[in-house]
Amino acid sequence: MLINWNGRIVSPQELSLGNNRAFQYADGFFEVLIVKEKKILAWELHLNRMNEIAQLLQISIKLVDWESEVLKLADSHQAFRFKLQIWRSDGGLVSPESNEPQWLITGRPYTPAPSVKSKVTYFTDYRLHRTPVSPYKTNQFLPYVLAGLFKKNGGYEDVILLDTNGNVAEASLGNIFWIKDDQVYTPSLDCGCIKGVMRAQLIALFSEFTKVQEGRYAPSFLEQADLIGCSNVSGITVFTQLNHLHFSATHPLLLKVQSKLPILS
Q1: Do 84 and 31 form a contact (C-beta atoms < 8 A)?
Q2: What are the start-end ranges of the E strands in the chain?
Q3: 97: which of 46, 118, 238, 256 is 20 to 30 A away, CA to CA?
């Protein structure tokens, strides 16, 4: 194999990415985990999602104790945010030769999600759609990269992605939900959004107090909300302004749910 790496001719031994299937074919997935007091928050939900996408991709992950591998890096006195990346072992071109996993775990101190964002708009250059792998965090993350570039270049704090039918799908950094007339709404997975772990927790917690409706919703319905929120493993962020429209920064239902979330307690 001949390799030119940033203008320098190197051997395959010098460049470990040469046959890396995550790099060559985006043949893998990842999870973002929060560890607090040597415990992975919502670990069962993360593990279930990992097993689902690994089964779809036919990557064998059952023989690794992933919880132990992550906790090897954890500090009992500090909360950490870890990224667990799993990809198929080297070999083959498009068709792989192995289903065995390789992985990388990186971590940094946990930073809570900002409580409020006030400069939010829609990102319409790329539309999401439902596929067998769309609910998962695969290595093909370009829609969110493009949304991030649009957000950065426009000076926005976040952007909302739509699906191919023009319905609200999710925000660039997490799942979206909103409260209207004391009911909670969130896009269904049919809109192409990620099957978020925090999303699942919020649906369960909100359901203790009110009705939660998952479905396909036009931006005009979202814009009638009393409160708009975005969730990911780092917490909940409230959007107080979407384009020229203003929304509440708090709601009694949200306060009840926030008091029950381990990451916020």
Answers
A1: yes
A2: 3-5, 8-10, 28-36, 39-40, 80-88, 101-109, 116-117, 120-128, 158-163, 168-171, 175-180, 183-187, 212-215, 227-232, 235-239, 241-242, 245-246
A3: 46
Per residue in 125-150, pLDDT (tens digit) is: 999 999 999 999 999 999 999 999 99
d(CA 124, CA 103): 34
Q: Which amino acid is at 104?
A: L
Name the 3-class secondary structure at 147: helix
- Would you state the structure tokens that stand for residue 64, as one six-digit string? 């690794």
The pLDDT tens digits of the residues spanning 214-262 come to 999 999 999 999 999 999 999 999 999 999 999 999 999 999 999 998 7
| DSSP bridge partners of 4 | 9
- Exposed/middle/buried for 67, CB within 10 Å: 0-12, 13-18, 19+? middle
What is the C-alpha to C-alpha distance for residues 260 and 265, in angstroms, rounded to an integer? Answer: 7
Residue 81 β-bridge partners: 34, 108
Q: Which among 72, 91, 90 is positioned nearest to 80, based on CA atoms?
A: 72
Q: Which residue do the tokens 């973002």 mark?
A: 32
- Beta-bridge partner residues of 5: 8
pTM higher than 0.85:
yes
| Domains identified in the chain and CATH numbers | 3-109 (3.30.470.10), 116-264 (3.20.10.10)
Residue with tokens 């009110």: 210
Residue that is written with structure tokens 């990269």 in the block: 145
Six token digits for residue 160: 């909302």
Residues 219 and 191: beta-carbon distance below 8 Å: no
